[in-house]
């Protein structure tokens, strides 16, 4: 593969919390259209890594480049504008809204309405609202929860709220979505459905980076994997390569039973 | 595919607002008491201020203790533009709104950079500065003696020079303000504002520039307050700094909380509650406690605020709404079904 294919470049990224180095000089490249997994035991620094890529946390050193934009130092909303959005390990749905409003809020960046055009409710505003609603509905249909569109989001079961977060992320027309443990709390039917959704969205040109503890999902879905332990990248490769790397197996997959029973 | 109807999301029937407006605008046909008009005019002034505050507090989650300042900026802008320079009241009104928005921008930018509830502190401090300026800039404002001789408003030669006419003028503004706010709430902007309360990190992750939206809500609230102040100035034709002190700001916040900040209709309920109870107190208190002064009012509303927060944390308006939907359900048995629900989007603590 050529260099032009690289869409996300993480370069020596480091995060220090006081004495704890949560992420220690981690580097990797993600290629366009890839489904890229980040795995590692609890506390390995996966969420911290995501937080730095998406601008939630400032990094101590190193940098992140997406396409030709430097993400380091930017705020999350600016990074979203560039085309990178995410879901959260601990659910972050807008609990004061209905399901469809959540997804319509996800489409914020695709809309143009401002305070004054909204206040005057110009015809273009109504048109845009209709279009956005339609689009939000499509996103919900894709993840299979369109029938819940008009429910208040906190009334949804846990698994559906996860799907809602993915629909919301997709509504912003991103190029890259970071999913922090998307399968946690989903039943096997929902997981299967979600894998299908992700594979389909990839066909439409999206790139995914995801954190996951469920090895079966990771092995079946990802093109490449980065393995982290204690803030350090300890390996990288295709699922087969990772499984065959004795260092990785010893450090991480070996204790799989102890470490990842309940992530 | 089924038709995507926006009414499914924001299913407010216009029935309630229309009935309210018709009754209100027909009121003078049945009651022609200047006293009643005056009361409704005051409610209108306060409702306008509270409407803007509801957008700021109920939807963007920010608390301002300086709305009386913007109310004052509107009033003095109008007074100076019309009284000193003899220009049209409409110019004064627009000048006041622009000035109010600019000042909100200047106060808001550094404040919203900080996380947490610094707006309350910043606006309180800023309010004291402006209040002092109203007092000290004697050449411009007339100082503590006040500004006299503000002309009345006219529109194409029609003078709004009596209580009945002013009643209509003010309430047309209140209604336009309510529609404007409602439109904002039911749009991209309203969702962006509410998403901040729903989850700040997620809001940020989908691309909402949180600081910018808090700022916009604050500027909007300043414009509403300023507009109301302009209307006040042309009604009373005499203003002084005391009308725009910190106490007035506190009363505005109190109205918003008592009325209920999760719906813009709460602004009318809060303003009406404050004005009507205030009038009743003025009549009753001297009968029982002849020596009591204005402090009694402060105490009374303070207690009312605490009681409201304990028993109705979302304010009075949701109670009205419940009553209204009960009434409607009864009617529905006879009539074909109607969509139920006021102009309310689920927000804040409604769903715990
Ligand atoms: N805000 C913070 N302040 C201090 N330490 C933190 C902070 N956030 C994370 N850490 C620490 O950084 C390390 C990595 O945490 P992180 O949440 O990134 O791990 P993770 O790989 O996502 O784990 P899990 O699988 O449990 O989600 C942990 O030791 C954690 O305690
Ligand atoms: Mg994590």
Automatic annotation (TrEMBL), chain A:
Residues 8-255 form the ABC transporter domain. Pfam families: ABC_tran. Transmembrane segments: none annotated. Keywords: ATP-binding, Nucleotide-binding, Transport. GO terms for biological process: D-alanine transmembrane transport; L-alanine transport; L-isoleucine import across plasma membrane; L-valine import across plasma membrane. It comes from the Bacteria. GO terms for cellular component: plasma membrane. One of its GO terms (molecular function) is L-valine transmembrane transporter activity. The keyword ATP-binding applies. InterPro entries: AAA+_ATPase (IPR003593), ABC_AA/LPS_Transport (IPR051120), ABC_transporter-like_ATP-bd (IPR003439), P-loop_NTPase (IPR027417). This is ABC transporter ATP-binding protein. It comes from Peribacillus cavernae.
From TrEMBL, chain B:
It is a multi-pass membrane protein. One of its GO terms (cellular component) is plasma membrane. It comes from the Bacteria. The chain crosses the membrane at residues 12-31, 37-56, 68-85, 91-109, 116-134, 166-185, 217-238, 250-277, 298-317. GO terms for molecular function: branched-chain amino acid transmembrane transporter activity. It is found in: Cell membrane. Keywords: Cell membrane, Membrane, Transmembrane, Transmembrane helix. Its main location: membrane. InterPro entries: ABC_transp_permease, LivM-like. Residues 331-352 are annotated as: Disordered. Signal peptide: none annotated. This is Branched-chain amino acid ABC transporter permease.
């Amino acid at each position: 593969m050529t260099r032009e294919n690289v869409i996300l470049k993480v370069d020596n990224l480091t995060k220090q919390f006081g004495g704890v180095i949560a992420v220690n000089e981690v580097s990797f490249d993600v290629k366009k259209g890839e489904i890229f997994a980040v795995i590692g035991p609890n506390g390995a620094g996966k969420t911290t890594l995501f937080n730095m890529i998406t601008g939630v946390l400032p990094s101590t050193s190193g940098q992140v480049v997406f396409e030709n934009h430097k993400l380091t130092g930017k705020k999350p909303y600016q990074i979203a504008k560039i085309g990178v959005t995410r879901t959260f390990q601990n659910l972050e749905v807008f609990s004061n809204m209905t399901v469809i409003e959540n997804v319509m809020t996800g489409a914020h960046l695709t809309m143009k309405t401002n305070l004054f055009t909204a206040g005057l409710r110009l015809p273009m505003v109504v048109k845009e609202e209709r279009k956005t609603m339609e689009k939000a509905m499509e996103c919900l249909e894709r993840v299979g929860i369109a029938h819940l569109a008009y429910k208040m989001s906190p009334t949804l079961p846990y698994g559906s709220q996860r799907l809602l977060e993915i629909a919301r992320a997709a509504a912003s027309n991103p190029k890259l979505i970071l999913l922090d443990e998307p399968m946690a709390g989903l039943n096997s039917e929902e997981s299967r459905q979600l894998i299908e959704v992700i594979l389909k969205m990839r066909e439409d040109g999206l790139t995914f980076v995801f954190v996951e503890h469920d090895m079966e999902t990771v092995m079946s879905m990802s093109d490449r994997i980065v393995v982290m332990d204690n803030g350090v990248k300890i390996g990288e490769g295709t699922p087969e390569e990772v499984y065959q790397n004795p260092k990785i197996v010893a450090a991480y997959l070996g204790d799989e039973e102890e470490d990842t029973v309940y992530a | 595919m089924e038709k995507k109807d926006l009414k499914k999301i924001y299913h407010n029937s216009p029935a309630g607002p229309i009935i309210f407006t018709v009754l209100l605008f027909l009121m003078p046909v049945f009651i022609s008491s200047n006293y009643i008009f005056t009361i409704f005019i005051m409610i209108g002034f306060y409702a306008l201020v509270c409407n803007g505050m509801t957008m700021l507090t109920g939807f963007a989650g920010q608390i301002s203790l300086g709305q009386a300042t913007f109310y004052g900026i509107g009033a003095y802008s109008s007074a100076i533009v019309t009284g000193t320079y003899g220009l049209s009241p409409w110019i004064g009104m627009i000048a006041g709104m622009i000035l109010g928005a600019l000042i909100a921008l200047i106060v808001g930018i550094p404040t919203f950079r900080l996380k947490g509830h610094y707006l309350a502190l910043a606006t309180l401090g800023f309010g004291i500065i402006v209040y002092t300026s109203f007092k000290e800039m004697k050449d411009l404002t007339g100082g503590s003696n006040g500004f006299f001789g503000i002309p009345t408003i006219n529109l194409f030669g029609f003078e709004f020079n009596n209580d009945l006419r002013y009643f209509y003028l003010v309430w047309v503004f209140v209604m336009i303000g309510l529609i404007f706010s409602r439109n904002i709430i039911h749009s991209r902007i309203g969702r962006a504002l509410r998403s901040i309360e729903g989850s700040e990190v997620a809001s940020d992750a989908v691309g909402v520039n949180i600081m910018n939206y808090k700022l916009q809500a604050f500027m909007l609230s300043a414009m509403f307050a300023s507009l109301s102040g302009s209307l006040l100035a042309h009604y009373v034709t005499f203003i002084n700094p005391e009308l725009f002190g910190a106490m007035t700001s506190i009363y505005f916040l109190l109205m918003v909380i008592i009325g209920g900040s999760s719906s813009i209709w709460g602004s009318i309920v809060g303003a009406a509650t404050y004005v009507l109870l205030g009038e009743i107190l003025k009549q009753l208190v001297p009968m029982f406690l002849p020596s009591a002064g204005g402090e009694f009012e402060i105490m009374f509303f303070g207690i009312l605020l605490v009681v409201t927060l304990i028993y109705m944390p979302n304010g009075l308006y949701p109670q009205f709404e419940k009553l209204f939907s009960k009434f409607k359900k009864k009617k529905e048995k006879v009539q074909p079904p109607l969509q139920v629900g006021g102009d309310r989007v689920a927000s804040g603590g409604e769903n715990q």
